Amino acid sequence: MNDDFNIRFAQRKDTELVLKFIKELADYEELLDEVIADEETLEESLFDREMAEVIIAEYKDKPVGFALFFHNFSTFLGKPGIYLEDLYVKPEYRGNGFGKKLLAFLADLTVKRDCGRLEWWVLDWNKSSIDFYESLGAKAMDEWTVYRLTGKSLQELAGDFKS
Question: SS3 helix, strand, coil % of the chain, rounded to 5?
Fold first, then answer.
């Protein structure tokens, strides 16, 4: 790796930076109004409960991007996998291979942790990201449809269990 580029695991003191990156990514994805996370929630989830992990990309000692990920599990493989929730490189640093280095770091971590998969979602309209991922050999899982329960629907279904 370039001596000026470094990837490290986030620490508690990076919580503000992680939230900043999340908001920048959400703004890029035109979803900023959906971000309700705050520093306290992130700190609890990432460092107290250890529900996810974050790596920080630095160039010349400046933070330029991040990836947030967590373990999932494949019953078919009988092994855990790594699910990449967010990958972001600041616009002014794109085109330098930093996104690929973040993914390569995660691929290496996936192998070292004896996980069977590295997976993520990408927005259908994000052609540049789709092209980038496909250039790395990633395959779209077009035969699967993602479903989500949140808010009132989630609360109502949870209430059915308590009945």
Answer: 40, 25, 35
Task: Tell me the mean pLDDT in the region 85-105.
Answer: 96
pLDDT over threshold 70, residue 109? yes
Judge contact between 77 and 117, C-beta under 8 A. yes
pLDDT, averaged across the chain: 95
Interatomic CA distance for residues 130 and 30, integer angstroms: 17
Domain that holds residue 128: 5-162
> Which residue stretches of 54-150 are H helix?
98-112, 127-135
At 60-77, the pLDDT tens digits run 999 999 999 999 999 999
Joined together, the tokens standing for residue 83 give 């699910």
Domains in the chain, number:
1
Is position 133 annotated as part of the catalytic site?
Answer: yes
What is the rounded distance in angstroms from the CA atom of residue 64 to the CA atom of residue 136? 21
How much is the pLDDT for 162? 74
Phi, psi for residue 115 in degrees, rounded to 5: -90, 155
Active-site entry in 28, 83, 93, 133:
133
> Residue 61's domain is classified under what CATH number?
3.40.630.30
